[in-house]
Design a protein that fits this description.
By secondary structure, the chain is α/β, with parallel strands linked by helices. The chain folds into two domains: about 170 residues, Rossmann fold (3-Layer(aba) Sandwich), CATH 3.40.50; about 200 residues, Dehydroquinate synthase-like, alpha domain (Up-down Bundle), CATH 1.20.1090. It contains 15 helices and eight strands. The strands form two sheets. It has a six-stranded parallel sheet with strand order 1-8-5-4-2-3. It has a two-stranded antiparallel sheet with strand order 6-7. α7 runs antiparallel to α8, α8 packs antiparallel against α9 and α11 runs antiparallel to α13. About 50% of the residues are buried. The protein binds 5,6-dihydroxy-NADP (NZQ) and zinc ion. It comes from Macrococcus hajekii. GO terms for molecular function: alcohol dehydrogenase (NADP+) activity; butanol dehydrogenase (NAD+) activity; metal ion binding; methylglyoxal reductase (NADPH) (acetol producing) activity. Keywords: Oxidoreductase. InterPro entries: ADH_Fe/GldA, ADH_Fe_C, ADH_Fe_CS, BDH-like. One of its GO terms (cellular component) is cytosol.
């Protein structure tokens, strides 16, 4: 393994009573009364969550900033930054999924600088402080509620880029699995695919020894797969939602990557697609991960065979190639069985775009820590996914 320091300061407050702890949680981080409430397209109003939160915030002066899009946009973040500066906001509460939380991370950091927020994303400037913020999570998927990463889309340049800073760990995240009951089926599916993809990215890593990581990843992946099937049949099954919610959080809060980085090529390959076509991140991963696995498996068949043993408990008497195939098919078939898309053509994305996507993925040169991809390889993966 590589040497590492594990750091994660986010207070994770989990359970049916978590949201009611909001006032005391905020009080740990500010004596101020000016709160900005950030949210997305309005699901929190339909579900009644908004009213619950406003009651809990009755002692505060609340400024609302709704309309943060799925695949959050730079233009929206920039408007929110102006409001934070103008009102002298003391604390930001993000209520939503990865998009609202990622947008809020950039609002937090950019509100303490005079630069364009995009300068932070492109690393022209390094933030030195941020407006403190906490989250109430409404969809289990990205792990953004307990990590320091953020992904922002610039529609002027069709770039979707990730950035991160230890300053933008949420101060706290309140997770009540009941809040997931109102998720539309396709969003539950996207969340299952995304959290499993985070585990896959880290399973296929650059370390010589990742025995502890392998065991944690395989265990969490199996439980997410079981709970996913239950939650899709019974959207109000509390235990299944509980497992999906905690599973998605631990999949990307640093626990699973102690001693290595993981591959992360497929995330780059997916972001290039959703930067141009605005498809859901989980949907893109469901299409592209099996294609990446197919392309890379013959470069390291031992690792793919171990994956099938760890996650799908394949018969040890199978040949190495049979195990490799069982692992890849196991992932593809599971995602298809829960209703995830399998081809870029499902979104009317054609070969005409592949070169544009590939050039975007290569903005920093060849990439992928488990197996390095060049342009030819990336083009081949898009071909496998068409
Ligand atoms: O906007 P509203 O109306 O709230 O509706 C949302 C949105 O349309 C809806 N939704 C969320 N909770 C709901 C609900 N509808 C009903 N009931 C609820 N309880 O779901 C839709 C999708 O929400 P979004 O926040 O976009 O989903 P997700 O959490 O999957 O976030 C995706 C974004 O995160 C980035 C992705 O690239 C994408 O931009 N990622 C962030 C990461 C990170 N920060 O660590 C890592 C990931 O790999 C990923 O790249
Ligand atoms: Zn992801």
């Amino acid at each position: 393994m590589n040497s590492f320091t594990f750091y994660n300061p986010t207070q994770l407050v989990f359970g049916k009573d978590s949201i009611e702890k909001l006032p005391q949680m905020i009080a740990q981080f500010t004596q101020g009364k000016k709160i900005m409430l950030t949210y997305g397209g309005g699901s929190i109003k339909k579900s009644g969550l908004y009213d619950r939160i406003m009651t809990l915030l009755s002692d505060f002066e609340v400024t609302e900033f709704g309309g943060i899009e799925p695949n959050p946009r730079l233009s929206t973040v920039t408007k929110a930054v102006e409001v934070v500066k103008e009102k002298g906001i003391d604390f930001i509460l993000a209520v939503g999924g990865g998009s609202v939380i990622d947008g809020t991370k950039l609002i937090s950091a950019a509100s303490k600088l005079d630069n364009d927020p995009w300068d932070i994303v492109t690393r022209k400037v390094t933030p030195e402080e941020g407006v403190p913020f906490g989250t109430i999570l409404t969809i289990s998927a990205t792990g953004s509620e307990m990590n320091s990463g953020s992904v922002i889309t610039n529609w002027e340049t069709n770039e979707k880029l990730g950035w991160g800073s230890p300053l933008v760990f949420p101060k706290f995240s309140l997770l009540n699995p009941e809040i997931l009951y109102t998720l539309p089926k396709n969003q539950t599916v996207n969340g299952i695919v995304d959290s499993m993809s985070h585990l896959l990215e880290q399973y296929f890593n650059e370390a010589d020894n990742s025995a502890i990581g392998d065991a944690m990843i395989a265990g969490v992946m199996k439980e997410i797969m079981k709970a996913g099937e239950v939650a899709l049949k019974e959207p109000e099954n509390y235990e299944a939602r509980e497992t999906l919610m905690l599973g998605a959080t631990v999949a990307l809060n640093g626990f699973m990557r102690m001693g290595y980085n993981g591959d992360w090529a497929t995330h780059n390959i997916e972001h290039a697609v959703s930067a141009v076509h605005d498809i859901a991140h989980g949907a893109g991963l469901a299409i592209l991960f099996p294609a990446w696995m197919t392309y890379v498996s013959d470069k390291s068949p031992e690792r793919f065979a171990k994956f099938a043993e760890d996650v799908f408990d394949v018969d040890s008497s199978l040949s190495q190639q049979e195990k490799v195939d069982a692992g890849i098919n196991g992932i593809r078939d599971y995602w298809t069985s829960i209703g995830a898309p399998a081809h870029l053509s499902d979104f009317e994305i054609t070969e005409d775009d592949f070169e544009t996507f590939a050039d975007k993925t290569l903005f920093n040169g060849p990439f992928g820590n488990f197996y390095q991809l060049d342009k030819e390889a990336v083009m081949a993966i898009y071909q496998l996914a068409k």
